[in-house]
Amino acid sequence: MHSKHAPTDIDALRHDALQHLELGAVTTDYSADRKAVIERLNQALATELVCVLRYRRHHFMARGIHARGVAAEFLVHSNEEQGHADLLAARIVQLGGEPDFDPDTLTRRSHAQYIAGSSLRDMIREDLVAERVAIHSYRELVRYLGTDDPTTSDLIKTILAVEEQHANELADYLEDFPHSA
């Protein structure tokens, strides 16, 4: 049985691998627009960092009879968002870019807003809104990447699955939470 593709020319692969060694994992067959991917990943990084800060604030500011469990969940989400930020920053570096941690432009680059929320219900609501924005942004990024950058696409899909889990958890809290709290 014959393959649709010609066998790999090992000598040609080695030659290509020797070209531009400074690019590390980015090889000649990388077909995405690296600059655009890095820019989008930096937007995702900013989004994750804003979410880390908002969740962290909510963890410390949660008050009321229902606060203990919700505050603990805010801390878990904050830590998971920090993990996402770290993964995104590492991927930006792998692609030859620089992760942008500049606090002066963080909220402008973020897709999610930093809204403090005045009550526990407001905090849950704002976190759910941010998760839904992140979900939409990540789905859009996966579509943009298509098959041009499978590694970044797989990373984003992994993060997306956690964001969807966060949104479901927050929606459950919001549904069960009294409007007056």
Question: What would your notes on this structure say?
Answer:
By secondary structure, this protein is mainly α. It is 67% helix and 0% strand. It has six helices and no strands. It has helices at 10-18, 34-61, 67-94, 106-109, 120-145, 150-176. 30% of the residues are buried.
Key words describing this protein structure:
Ferritin_DPS_dom, mainly alpha, Ferritin-like domain-containing protein, Ferritin, 181 residues, iron storage, 67% helix
What portion of residues is helical? 55-70%
- What is the count of β-strands? 0
Give me the CATH superfamily: Ferritin, core subunit, four-helix bundle
Mean pLDDT: 89
Q: Give the helices and strands as they follow along the chain.
A: HHHHHH
> Which CATH class?
Mainly Alpha
How much β-strand is present in the residues?
A: under 5%
Shape: elongated
Which spans have pLDDT < 50 for at least 5 consecutive residues?
A: none
Mind summarizing the main beta sheet?
none
Q: What distance separates the N and C termini?
A: 68 Å
Structural class: mainly alpha
The CATH architecture: Up-down Bundle
Look up the CATH topology.
Ferritin
Q: How many structural domains does the protein architecture include?
A: 1
**Helix count, DSSP H or I runs of 4 or more residues:** 6
Give me the Rg, rounded: 20 Å
Keywords: Iron, Iron storage
Domain Ferritin-like diiron: 31-181
Protein name: Ferritin-like domain-containing protein
InterPro entries: Dps-like (IPR014490), Ferritin-like (IPR012347), Ferritin-like_diiron (IPR009040), Ferritin-like_SF (IPR009078), Ferritin_DPS_dom (IPR008331)
